[in-house]
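Most newcomers find our protein records easier to grasp once they have seen one. A learned vocabulary of local backbone shapes supplies the integers on the structure line. Here is such a record, shown just as it appears in the course material:
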Amino acid sequence: MKDAFGLPQSLLVLGGTSEIALATARRLIARRTRTVWLAGRPSPALEEAAGQLRGLGADVHTVAFDALDPASHEAVLGKVFAEGDIDLVLLAFGLLGDQARDEREPEAAVRVAQTNYTGAVSAGLVCARSLQSQGHGSLVVMSSVAGERARRANFIYGSSKAGLDAFAQGLGDALHGTGVHVMVVRPGFVRTRMTAGLPEAPLATTPEAVATAVELGLRRRSETVWVPGALRVVMAALRHLPRGVFRRLPI
């Protein structure tokens, strides 16, 4: 069960090799978390991540999970919840894609959408139902400021995150009063392997900073977390710019 500060004893990570998710897991293990499930495609990277977390003192398990195989989600995730209550589910998988290539190759664009949105809807609903059956728990969904307003430079990725963000907000409303807490996290540009080689955006942040914000959000029972916090104001301004002006911005 979570403690008085909202921090979990048990954690399920969907996207077990995500740098943001692993930074969050390390931070939570340092506080209170003792059992971790890392769900992702079987790989040496997944096993390495599990080993690193075990070195911090956690009981860590890996589970084969594929966001692109929604038909398997209920069985795969159901087995995790059958092992015992899960206090926190961190939905952190995602695919950035390559905008230029994805515009030329619709199948590649569909893969981005299916990973970031369809897969997340499936896994999110499965986990939400299990958390509701427990009567407690949190679902933290890694969204992005890219979903606030589609930009020419990454509108395929941004549109998938917009869908995910709206879904997570609606799910949070649906679960209100059930004992299940949904928190949407909207980071800006995060320095990770996924963004390596890309031009760095203003207010860039790190996985560790996102992890700190997630912990604070859990303690406060926040529904939305911006990382860094200044992005809330920036995006509020960008969201209301006339389209003709927004189109000319170098973003």
